[in-house]
Each structure stands twice: as structure tokens, then as C-alpha cells.
Design a protein that fits this description.
- Chain A is mostly helical.
- Helices cover 69% and strands 1% of the residues of chain A.
- Chain A has one domain: Orthogonal Bundle (MetI-like fold), CATH 1.10.3720.
- Chain B has a domain of 178 residues: MetI-like (MetI-like fold), CATH 1.10.3720.10.
- The chains are: A mainly alpha (314), B mainly alpha (283), C alpha+beta (370).
Chain lengths: 314, 283, 370
């Protein structure tokens, strides 16, 4: 039994911590948690508090005078700024497209890997590798050797199909970036879904065989419902990582052409590094955080099942 | 169902092994296609630049290590920084995550769900949002461009996932083992040390592996918060990108060198990696 | 029409290992309740799965009705199976579980619902349970849903793989009779696997005893009890188990407990013809009588020994008696009231024609009577 329990098996262990746990015991239990908790609070919340503070300041790196209070003006700028809104939309589009495509591919690959065949271990190794490649390296390899309009491999492979010398990063910039995101995260989805496939009790599959279900019917009626919590976990975790994609944007297209591939992380990076606008970036950051919290709350309610399985022992 | 008056065996239409072979073929084709960019990266890295910029792309050429030699010049400081930052943060993560996971699984605190949610939520807030203020803080605490800062940040980056993973491994320890240990008089520390740790050791390896992968490959924080004293391999890779001109083979060589350590470690510890990424489900 | 025939059916799991099922020849009559029984590894479950089509048949045939189904996939064999762990579909409701096969056969919804409801009634499953998921049911309820799923199909053959082994003892006894009665009512040919010989004896019309992949004997329960064809069957059937001992042949019988235990002439002749100097004899605990010294049974064998353990069963008691030559104690069944106390000496009597004799090497029964 792992993080994700099979829906059929009721948990043996008690779910709730018994109330009759004395004060000393409760503190003893909290103790091991404290180092990590304090660490995370300090390292993540302090910067956030500082960000909040700066969001109300006008602070330009390249101007003398330091920071001075400016109320909500940074926030007004953020909301009226088309670039911020644009990058937000683009982030959503890129993340959604990549997560969905990676999950679909992940399910397909997992199904392939779920059956014994010659060289299955090697095939699995090959499929996992894109996840191991340094994202910066992946971005550079796709930008150059793969997608170059004149020397790239992709154009060579597509030539027989009548597609000639496409400048992918100019004409299909967003798509190219999304392809790299999908390429790197499909292995992650594959392994999570594979875990789900292998946790299916084999005798239910045999019962389906006896009951007259063919391979497709079994997949549709039994396997997919079983996979649902795994798929949800993959989508949740994948989204968390994919929404922060930076390397591919910076190294493949530098946000362009124009701003067509600028997502939120890249936009914020530009604000700090090019516009030197600490205050503005901070405000944008705060807005991002608030939006993320709203989305995450909805998402987590939908994915409550994932947390339902996190039954602790007492 | 028709009943045949005479017993006659019904022949198999297709021999059993055809399905297996077909499946293997499809799987291999798909896997190789998916792996192709990596293969192409390594092949291109061995090309002299002149052979890399051709149309059609060359598959036959005289391999050379020239680009590699160029690519690794000046690499050592970056390499050292990466090793220190990765190893340091991974060790710190494990030291913090094991007790925390313990407190969220075996003898859970009352509000363990909130605790777990809090840790995960820190991952959901994009670090990019705080990069400006982070820079300012780092500047004022004299931590800018230091390995220490990278270790601190990478630890915070990996801690939530590590806690979740280690917790799921701890939940697999059979309750009876812990009860037996308790009856034998084992205190909490002994319990963790002699009972739990040995059992979840493979899980710890998986977790460490995933932390190493994320820390080694991390670019954004390194880009913004390091200059020379703590610049890591991803930074080295970025610096290999020339401002002008096309250097496809050079890029491929640099990319290969930067990625090889994690790829090799991932391949060798593949079982561990698979176990970790699937949250302990696939052994 | 729905008889079942195994014809020399064999299954070998990996080359070089002995077959899991070795050239099984078995005839199940239409409407019969046939039990396959044996210890673990005997091949009974494998044989069942070969009939289901879940296990390939390496050589030989299997027929259902008069149709050779050896190469036919499970869904086309017109069978239904109850699995040991029930194998209920976790994300489907009870009604959906039971109706699944019908859905696969594209039976219209109204018919499906009607048949599911009928089966539920037959099995005493409350209507309210139909909308629940398996994880909300008790073990006994799940077992009945598994049975319901099989019944709804109205198949030619029922296959059951140890369906009672996950129930607690009391529920097991209850359900046992319910299943037997259900089968009688429906009249569907049933092949039932169990490791529990009590289940086998009480439920089956005929019982097939398997050991290490080979069929030992297939007969009615009574026949198995009274005329076991070899040592394995004799020792497996009957509870408590038959006492088996290796003994030396001597004039008139065999040496046991310092005396001569007489054996029928036919047995002695058979032993002599086989050139044996020793035998394995078997005596059922219920055939070893405790005497109080008065009214000795003439011509009976006598064993005297020390009582080392008394197991009280209420109506009966089981005496574990150690014989002077040592070895495993002999178990005898006696009246529950005032059994001899441990430590006491006791004399047991057995009739020669109630003593079984087996070949010490092959285990075959020597000179069985008609």
C-alpha cells in the first residue's frame, strides 16, 4: 500500500489520532516536525513577506534613492499592464497543453510498459531519460541540433512528408517550447500511471476476461476508473512543476518572437533583470501568488481524493 | 452456442507469440523515437563543427573529441560548485525530512493534514515571484553568490517533495514491527534508527536521487543569485552559448557534458528512480 | 449438455519442472457438483483455471458439453467463475458488478436489471446493497455478490475457486450448505476447488482427490471414505486423519504394539505376492475402540499403550495413545463421557477388516475388498 490506496481495500489502521494522547506526548510528537517546519517557514515565508513589503514600495535598482512608499500604485500597474495579463494567459495555455499532452502520452507509454516483452527494461530506461536531461541542455539541444531551420534533424525527418526547412522557433515558437516541456515531463507521468496499472489486482482483470470483456472494454470499464487518482496526482504534481518552466523559454526563444512565448516566470525575470523594477516585480509576484492560491484551492478540492488516501497511523 | 455432434478441436487462428512480438516492436519503435533527441545530442557532440552544420544532417562522419575539449575548458569551478550545492542540499534535505516525515506518519501530530498541506503549498507558490526581494535579502546578508545560499534554497526547494515521499515509504512499514519494537522497550530514537531506517533505505535512496536531479539541473535561482563564486553547471552551459553565430556541435558537447552525470546516475539507480517517481508503488 | 471432460489435460509451468497438472482425465456429469480437493500445490486450482481458459493447456483437451474448448477464450466458453478473493470490480456498484457480464453481452438494460434483482433475491442480498460499492460490504456480503455475478449469467458451468476460505468458521459452515442447496436448485454443473476435505465431503456429489498434479481417485464421498485407493487418499479423507504406521509383516498379520495384529488372508497373500516384508497400515480413529476389559471382541487386534493427551470434543473425545515401541501416538475416538485420563494405560481394539494395508513404496492399497 502506498500513497495512493486501491479504492477497494479498506484501511486496516485507525485514521484518527486517539484523543487520549497526553500533553507531553503531543509535544514529543511535534518535535521531529519542528526543524523542517521552522526551516521552511523561515526560508520561504520571509522572502514572501519581504516581497509583500516591496510591492508597496517604489524601488528601482538603477535609480538612486532606494525604496519609498507608494501605496497601491504597483498593483494598478500590474492590473493595467497588458504584458502581465498576456504572460499570465500564456502560462495557463502552456501549462495546460503540456500537462494534458504529457498525461495522454504517459498513459500510452505506461500501457506499453505494463506487459512483459523482450528488452522491456531497456525500453523503460530509454523512456525515462528525457526527464534526466538537464532542462537547460534539453532546451539548447532542441533549439539547435533538433529544430534549426537549416541543419536541424526534425526538418530532415519531415522532408519526405513535404515539410521543408521550417524555422520552428520563429513560426511555431509557442508550440516548440510546449513540445520540449511535454518531452521532459512525459516520463514522470508514465511512471505514475504505470504504478497505477501495476497496482490493479490481477484477479479483477481475470474476472473481466471471464465476464466477456475484451481488452478495450476492460480498459474503459475497469482500468481507467482505477487510474483516476493516479492521473489526478500526476496532473497536480506536473502542473506545479510545469507552471514554473523557465529554462526552455529563456534558452530557446528568450520569450519571443516578441512576447509570444513569455510566460509568468520569464516575465517576472525580465521585470527584475531588465526593467530593474523591484517594486513592480514584487507586486506582480504577489498577484501571482494570490492567483496560485485561488487555483490551488479549487484544484485541491477537486483532487481531495489524493489527500484522502494520506491516512496516517496512530 | 452451437453444439457439434462430433468432437473437433477448434484451431487457434493466430499463434500466441505473434502478439508478443508485435507489442515489442511497437514499444521499441516508440521508445527509440522518444529517445532520439538524446541520441542526436550525443552524436552531434562528437562531430567537428563543420560536420554539424550540413544539410542533410550527417550520420556518418569522423568522430572527434575537439568540441568536448573546447566545451570543458573552464568547467571545473562550475562542476565543483554543482557538486557542493547538490550534495550539501540533499544531505540537509534528508536530515530535515526524515524526522518531519516521521512526525506526519508513524506517530502523527494531530494536525498532520495541515502540516502536509503547508509543505506542499510552499511548492505551489512560484519562487520566481520572490526573486527580486530574494536578491536584495541575499545582498544584505552577504550571502549573494555563495554556495551556502544555494544549499539553503535548494533544500527549501526539495524539502516538500522529500517529506511527502519519505512519508509514503514510512507508511509501508508494517505496524506490527513497530509494536514489537515498542514492546522490546525501544525508545523513539531507537525505533527510527534500528527499525524504520533500514526498511525504508531503498526509499531514502530514491528520494535522494530525485533531490540530486532537481538540484543539479536547477537554473533559475543559479542564474539570478550567482556570479562566479557559486555558479553551477547550468550556468556553465548557458555561458557556452555564444552571442553570435551558430555552434551546434559545441552546444551539443556542452549539453552532453552537463547532463551526463545525472543521466548516468539515473540509469544506474534506475530501480530507485522509478520507485521514487511512482511514489514507492513500482518496485 | 453441460458435462465437462478433462482428457489427458496437462500444464507445465516451466520446462524441466514436473507438470502442475499431469495428464488429468476427469468426467463431470451434467448437473453434477464435482469437488477438486487436495493440499497446496496439488494442481487443483490450476486444473480449474485450465477449464476457465485462464491457464493455457499444454497438451490434452478440455471439453464443455460436446465442444472442445481447449483453444477457446474464456468469454466464449459460457462459464462463470467465483474467485477466491471475489475479484469484485472496486469502482462499480454491486448491481453493476453483477450485471457486468450481461452488459458485455449487450443484454438490454431492463433485462439486466431484472436478472440482477432475481439473483440478489436468490442469494438473500438486500435491495439496498445493490447501489453500494464493494468496499462498503462485509466479507460475507461480498462473497454473495461474487456468487450473484456468476449466477446472473446462467452459464453452462460454474467454477468456484475456494470461495469460502476467506470467511470465518461459522459463516463458512452456513454458506457451505447454502451453496450446495443453490446448486441443487439451479441444477448447473459445478466444479468446485477446496483444500478443506470436510467441505469436499459434505458438498460434492463426487470428489476428485489430487496430489502433486495427479488425480488420485474420483468417487463419491462414501466410496472415498470406505475404499481409498491409496495411502494418500486414505490419509487425506476423514477427520481426524487415519492413523498410518509402517509395520513389519509376520505370521498371521503384522507386528504392532508388541503383539500380532491379524490381517485378512487376502491382504497377506497380496503382500506375499509382492515380496514385501513390511507394510503401511491404516486405522481410522473411529475404528479403534476402547474396551474396559469385559467382553473382548474375538479375533480383533489389540493395542495397549499410554494415554498422553485427551482432546475433548463434547460428544466424543480423542485419545492420543503412545505405543510401547514409541513413534507417533495413535489417535482413537471414544465416548465423551469419562474418557481415560492422561497417564493411564488403555487397550484399543480394531477389527482386522477395518484395517487398511498399503504398499510401503507405491502407497497403493493392497487387496481392497469389493
Amino acid at each position: 500500500m502506498t500513497v495512493l490506496e486501491d479504492l477497494a481495500a479498506p484501511r486496516r489502521d485507525a485514521e484518527v489520532v486517539p484523543l487520549a494522547v497526553g500533553r507531553r506526548e503531543r509535544w514529543l510528537r511535534r518535535l521531529p516536525l519542528l526543524p523542517a517546519l521552522i526551516y521552511v517557514v523561515v526560508v520561504t515565508q520571509i522572502p514572501f513577506v519581504v516581497t509583500l513589503w516591496y510591492s508597496f514600495q517604489s524601488y528601482f535598482w538603477d535609480q538612486p534613492g532606494g525604496a519609498h512608499f507608494t501605496g497601491l500604485s504597483n498593483y494598478t500597474t500590474v492590473f493595467t499592464n497588458a504584458s502581465f495579463r498576456g504572460s499570465l494567459v500564456r502560462s495557463v495555455v502552456m501549462t495546460a497543453a503540456a500537462v494534458i499532452a504529457a498525461m495522454i502520452l504517459g498513459v500510452a507509454f505506461a500501457v506499453l510498459l505494463d506487459r512483459k516483452f523482450f528488452g522491456r527494461g531497456v525500453v523503460r530506461t530509454l523512456i525515462i531519460t528525457p526527464f534526466l536531461v538537464m532542462p537547460a541542455a534539453a532546451a539548447l539541444v532542441w533549439a539547435g541540433p533538433m529544430l534549426d531551420p537549416n541543419f536541424g534533424l526534425l526538418n530532415y525527418l519531415l522532408a519526405p512528408f513535404g515539410i521543408h526547412h521550417v524555422a520552428w522557433l520563429s513560426v511555431h515558437a509557442l508550440g516548440s517550447v510546449i513540445v520540449v516541456m511535454i518531452w521532459q515531463w512525459t516520463p514522470f507521468m508514465t511512471l505514475i500511471v504505470l504504478a497505477g496499472l501495476q497496482s490493479q489486482p490481477p484477479d479483477t482483470l481475470e474476472a473481466a476476461k471471464v465476464d466477456g470483456a475484451g481488452a478495450l472494454a476492460t480498459f474503459r470499464e475497469l482500468t481507467l476508473p482505477h487510474l483516476r487518482p493516479y492521473i489526478e496526482l500526476g496532473i497536480l504534481l506536473g502542473s506545479i512543476y510545469l507552471v514554473n518552466t523557465f529554462d526552455a523559454v529563456r534558452l530557446m526563444t528568450n520569450g519571443g518572437p516578441g512576447t509570444s512565448t513569455t510566460n509568468l516566470p520569464f516575465y517576472l525575470y525580465q521585470q527584475v533583470n531588465n526593467a530593474f523594477d523591484v517594486g513592480g516585480a514584487a507586486a506582480a509576484g504577489v498577484v501571482t501568488v494570490i492567483l496560485t492560491i485561488i487555483v490551488a484551492t479549487f484544484a485541491l478540492r477537486m483532487f481531495a481524493r489524493v489527500f484522502q488516501f494520506e491516512e496516517a497511523r496512530g | 452456442m452451437t453444439v457439434l455432434p462430433v468432437v473437433r478441436p477448434e484451431p487457434r487462428r493466430v499463434p500466441r507469440w505473434v502478439g508478443s512480438v508485435g507489442w515489442a516492436v511497437v514499444a521499441w519503435v516508440v521508445a527509440l523515437a522518444f529517445f532520439l533527441p538524446v541520441l542526436w545530442m550525443v552524436i552531434t557532440a562528437f562531430k567537428p563543427e563543420s560536420a554539424a552544420e550540413t544539410w542533410p544532417p550527417k550520420f556518418i562522419f569522423t568522430p572527434t573529441l575537439a568540441e568536448f575539449r573546447l566545451a570543458v575548458t573552464g568547467m571545473s569551478p562550475f562542476l565543483i560548485h554543482s557538486v557542493l550545492a547538490t550534495a550539501g542540499s540533499t544531505i540537509l534535505v534528508l536530515l530535515l525530512a526524515v524526522p518531519a516525515a516521521y512526525a506526519l506518519s508513524v506517530y502523527p501530530v494531530r494536525r498532520w493534514r495541515d502540516g502536509l498541506f503547508f509543505f506542499i503549498s510552499t511548492k505551489m507558490l512560484p519562487i520566481v515571484a520572490a526573486i527580486g526581494p530574494l536578491y536584495v535579502i541575499a545582498l544584505h546578508t552577504h550571502l549573494l553568490d555563495s554556495i551556502g545560499l544555494m544549499i539553503i534554497l535548494y533544500t527549501a526547494m526539495n524539502l516538500p517533495l522529500a517529506i511527502w515521499m519519505i512519508r509514503s515509504f514510512m507508511l509501508e512499514v508494517p505496524g506490527e514491527l513497530l509494536e514489537a519494537a515498542r514492546l522490546d522497550g525501544a525508545g523513539r530514537l531507537r525505533e527510527i534508527g534500528s527499525v524504520i531506517l533500514p526498511i525504508i533505505m531503498p526509499g531514502l535512496v530514491s528520494t535522494a536521487l530525485i533531490c540530486v536531479i532537481f538540484a543539479w539541473n536547477e537554473l533559475f535561482l543559479a542564474l539570478n543569485l550567482t556570479v562566479t563564486n557559486a555558479a553551477t553547471m547550468p550556468m556553465f552551459l548557458m555561458s557556452s552559448v555564444p552571442q553570435e553565430g551558430l555552434y551546434i556541435a559545441h552546444l551539443a558537447a556542452a549539453a552532453t557534458v552537463a547532463s551526463i552525470p545525472v543521466i548516468l546516475v539515473g540509469w544506474m539507480a534506475q530501480r530507485s528512480l522509478v520507485r521514487g517517481l511512482s511514489m514507492g508503488a513500482i518496485k | 449438455m453441460a458435462s465437462v471432460r478433462y482428457m489427458s489435460a496437462t500444464r507445465v509451468f516451466s520446462k524441466g519442472t514436473p507438470p502442475a497438472v499431469d495428464a488429468l482425465d476427469l468426467d463431470v456429469h451434467d448437473g453434477e457438483f464435482m469437488v477438486l480437493v487436495g493440499p497446496s500445490g496439488s494442481g487443483k486450482t490450476t486444473a480449474l483455471r485450465m477449464l476457465a481458459g485462464l491457464e493455457p493447456i499444454d497438451s490434452g483437451h478440455v471439453e464443455i458439453g460436446d465442444r472442445d474448448v481447449t483453444q477457446v477464450p474464456p468469454k466464449d466458453r459460457d462459464i462463470a467463475m467465483v474467485f477466491q478473493n471475489y475479484a469484485l470490480y472496486p469502482q462499480k456498484t454491486v448491481a453493476e458488478n453483477m450485471g457486468f457480464a450481461l452488459k458485455m453481452q449487450r443484454v438490454p438494460r431492463a433485462d439486466r436489471d431484472r436478472r440482477v434483482r432475481e439473483a440478489a433475491r436468490l442469494l438473500d442480498l438486500d435491495e439496498q446493497l445493490l447501489d453500494r460499492k464493494p468496499r462498503q460490504l462485509s466479507g460475507g456480503q461480498r462473497q454473495r455478490v461474487a456468487m450473484g455475478r456468476a449466477i446472473v449469467r446462467e452459464p453452462k458451468v460454474f467454477l468456484m475457486d475456494e470461495p469460502l476460505s476467506n470467511l470465518d468458521a461459522k459463516l463458512r459452515v452456513q454458506t457451505r450448505s447454502q451453496i450446495a442447496e443453490l446448486q441443487r436448485r439451479l441444477g448447473i454443473t459445478t466444479v468446485y476447488v477446496t483444500h478443506d476435505q470436510v467441505e469436499a465431503m459434505t458438498m460434492g456429489h463426487r470428489v476428485a482427490v489430487l496430489n502433486q498434479g495427479q488425480l488420485q481417485q474420483c468417487a463419491t464421498p462414501r466410496e472415498l471414505y470406505e475404499n481409498p485407493v491409496n495411502q494418500f487418499v486414505a490419509g487425506f479423507i476423514g477427520s481426524p486423519a487415519m492413523n498410518l504406521r509402517t509395520v513389519q509383516l509376520t505370521d498371521g498379520g503384522v507386528q504392532l504394539a508388541g503383539k500380532v495384529l491379524p490381517l485378512p488372508a487376502t491382504v497377506r497373500t497380496a503382500a506375499g505376492a509382492a515380496g514385501l516384508t513390511e507394510l503401511v497400515i491404516g486405522m481410522r480413529p473411529e475404528h479403534l475402540h476402547v474396551t474396559d476389559g469385559s467382553g473382548e471382541l474375538t479375533g480383533s487386534g489389540e493395542l495397549t499403550g499410554e494415554v498422553i493427551l485427551v482432546e475433548e470434543l463434547g460428544a466424543d473425545a480423542l485419545l492420543h495413545v503412545r505405543l510401547p515401541e514409541g513413534g507417533t501416538p495413535v489417535v482413537a475416538r471414544t465416548e465423551g463421557r469419562k474418557p481415560p485420563a492422561p497417564g493411564r494405560e488403555v487397550t484399543l481394539h480394531v477389527q482386522p477388516d477395518e484395517v487398511f494395508a498399503f504398499h510401503p513404496v507405491t502407497g497403493a492399497r493392497l487387496a481392497g475388498q469389493a
